[in-house]
From TrEMBL:
Protein name per Swiss-Prot or TrEMBL: histidine kinase
CDD domains per UniProt: HATPase_UhpB-NarQ-NarX-like
Reaction catalysed by this enzyme: ATP + protein L-histidine = ADP + protein N-phospho-L-histidine
EC number: 2.7.13.3
Organism of origin: Chryseobacterium culicis
Pfam families per UniProt: HATPase_c, HisKA_3
GO cellular component: membrane
Length: 657
């Protein structure tokens, strides 16, 4: 639940920053633009004002926004620079409505604006590149977007040094990094933005949102004191403007701070203020995020009826429930809430909805994997045929060469006979070496195929057992527990029948243990959230009172093939299990990083160490299985261990299978 709230709130911040910043004094800003549109000014000035008004109303009043955009286009017809600007604002209008149209507009804006050499043109090009990356995010992911920021947007503005636009772009990059849990890197870019904005633009909206982003970044790291410092600075900037729509974002950051500090009552009060502003300015997604935080707090306070009503409203409004994974989470939470309230029938209904949606998502994933495997098989088959044809051609060429050599040898008599013998000897040695190499490669390929078959079989069996435990036995035990809970509430007395409630508690513990076993066999977080999140969960699982685990993830791609993710997950799982069970360590450092096709794993502990030759002297399969998985991904492993601790470095090839 905590992770889900963080992801949704980060998504909200991301949506906010995908547009130009509006000044905090919004009324003065809009009044000034309206005055320009009504005044006796040149058409380009009016066109620019209409474009800015269109951008201001694009989320709150789409009809008015489109009207201003079309009026600006007409006024800009005979002015090439303002016509180029129109394409950018057309992309802004379509960004949340039709991403395909928006991407076309941004590309046209970039081509048109590149003809003009001035600061405004460079900044709009930078924004167009950034917004184009946003429009492609769902298809291409975040890596191309970050690359676009670093290689296209920021260089266009960086040449103007202390420009507020450069500070603005640094903040946008920081938001993306925070969304991908790169908190330290995000802090670096937030600090770069602050260095520019605090010195040169101390009252700007750009600085206000940089303060909020910095506060949010520290909240997600549970550093409440640092977050509060930035939130107080943001409050000083927004307090003179109680009618600004930006107040909603300030109260959302304040809500995150109170949640971080577990001050639930104060958080509820702030949420009500935030909902007021969000509704006032038609910020529907933000309003639903406030309601979702309100639900989470009410649940923690065990005010289950209020929590249930709030979550049902979020589900009905649909802003958050459009995403199927979000909806699946809502169904699961409603099932648990109804179970707490003793509403057995409703609990089972929501559990069934959760199961159907979960099965549907799993089926879709299976179809995707089947298509990938089929495509992979077809490609391999084509490559095999090409290799066969090349081998036949090489064989024929070799036969021709032998015949020619024989004819030349016969014609050169004694002198060339000796040369022929030498030549044949060299050919023999070369063919023998090639044959030995081929035999070696065939053996290695057979060993790799055997390892792949074993690992694939293990994972399929793990998945089957996990599914049977979770969906079959787990569902049955959960139903039994719900029925017992409902029956006991009307037939037994809590004080007189303590033995029954003790047994019921044991049944509940058994259900939880069963689900834990199922998740360990096939981690659900890996399938739903990817490798980095699954590894973070794994580290949190092994953390004990006397054991600290520091997990560092660096540039891990979210689109790694699932079988590669699974093998990396199992490798890390084996490393952590060995360190926890045998090392007797109080501190473990785990670092996972990716650079292109190379994936590096480093784990260090301060335990008692072990004998590196233990594989030869012990029947334990752990280290042997670990080496098999590393070999499967064509990797290499280095182990350094003594009485001061153990350090293991592994380098894998994600295309190595």
């Amino acid at each position: 639940m905590k992770r889900f709230l963080v992801l949704l709130s980060l998504f909200l911040s991301f949506q906010l920053q995908s547009q130009q910043i509006i000044p905090l004094h919004e009324k003065a800003y809009t009044d000034s633009l309206q005055s320009i549109t009504r005044g006796k000014l040149p058409d380009p000035s009016k066109a620019n004002a209409f474009f800015l008004l269109s951008n201001y109303y694009r989320n709150s009043d789409s009809v008015l926004s489109k009207k201003y955009l079309d009026t600006g286009r007409i006024l800009a017809q005979n002015h090439p620079f303002f016509t180029a600007k129109y394409y950018y604002y057309e992309g802004q209008y379509n960004l949340d409505r039709n991403k395909k149209k928006a991407s076309v507009s941004y590309q046209q804006a970039i081509r048109s604006l590149s003809k003009f050499k001035n600061e405004e043109s460079d900044f709009l090009q930078a924004l167009a590149w950034y917004s184009y990356g946003v429009s492609q995010k769902d298809k291409d992911g975040y890596v191309p977007l970050v690359k676009m920021m670093l290689e296209k947007s920021i260089p266009l503005v960086k040449k103007y040094k202390n420009s507020r636009n450069l500070g603005f772009l640094y903040t946008q990059l920081a938001v993306i990094l925070t969304y991908n849990a790169q908190f330290k890197k995000s802090e670096e870019y937030n600090n770069k933005a602050l260095e520019i904005l605090e010195k040169n633009y101390p009252d700007s909206a750009e600085l206000f949102f940089t303060y909020l982003n910095s506060a949010n970044n520290f909240c997600y790291q549970a550093h409440g004191d640092e977050a509060e410092k930035f939130l107080n600075k943001a409050e000083k900037l927004i307090s003179p403007y109680p009618e600004s729509s930006s107040n909603a974002f300030y109260y959302y950051s304040k809500t995150l701070l109170y949640i971080t500090r577990q001050k639930n009552a104060e958080a509820l009060s702030v949420i009500d203020k935030g909902i007021f502003y969000a509704k006032k300015f038609n910020q529907n997604l933000l309003a639903q995020m406030f309601y979702f935080n309100k639900y989470d707090i009410l649940k923690k306070l065990k005010r289950y009826k209020e929590a249930k009503a709030t979550l049902e409203d979020v589900l009905t409004e649909k802003s958050l429930a459009i995403d199927l994974n979000n909806r699946k989470t809502f169904y699961k939470q409603l099932s648990l809430l109804n179970e707490e309230l003793g509403n057995t029938k409703e609990a089972l209904m929501w559990e069934q909805k959760y199961s159907r949606l979960n099965d549907s998502l799993n089926t879709e994933n299976v179809k995707i994997e089947i298509n990938k495997l089929e495509s992979k098989f077809n490609t391999a088959e084509k490559e095999r045929k090409i290799a066969t044809l090349n081998a036949e051609k090489n064989q024929k060429d070799l036969e021709v060469n032998k015949k020619n050599s024989y004819l030349w040898g016969m014609s050169l008599v004694l002198l060339l006979a000796f040369s022929l013998l030498i030549f044949l000897f060299i050919i023999f040695r070369k063919n023998k070496k090639i044959s030995e190499q081929k035999i070696k490669e065939i053996k290695q390929q057979e060993e790799l195929s055997l390892t792949k078959a074993i690992l694939d079989g293990e994972e399929r069996e793990r998945e089957r057992i996990a599914r049977d435990l979770h969906d079959g036995l787990g569902g049955m035990l959960a139903g039994v527990k719900i029925n017992f809970s409902t029956w006991s509430s009307s037939h037994l007395h809590p004080e007189k029948d303590q033995e029954f409630y003790r047994i019921l508690s044991q049944l509940d513990h058994s259900v939880s243990e069963l689900r834990h076993v199922a998740r360990n066999l096939m981690p659900e977080s890996l399938l739903n959230f990817g490798l980095e999140t699954a590894l973070q969960d794994l580290c949190e699982f092994y953390i004990r009172k006397n054991l600290d685990i520091d997990f560092q993830a660096i540039d891990i791609e979210s689109k790694l093939p699932l079988n590669v993710q699974l093998n990396i997950y199992r490798i890390v799982q084996e490393l952590l299990a060995n360190a926890v069970k045998h090392a007797g360590a109080s501190s473990i450092l785990l670092q996972c990083s990716q650079s292109g096709k190379n994936f590096m794993i480093t784990i260090e502990d301060n335990g008692k160490g072990f004998d590196k030759n233990i594989e030869k002297t012990s029947k334990s399969m752990g280290l042997r299985n670990l080496k098999n998985r590393v070999s499967y991904l064509k990797g290499k492993m280095e182990i350094n261990s003594d009485q001061q601790g153990t350090a293991i470095n592994i380098e894998l090839n994600i295309h190595g299978e």
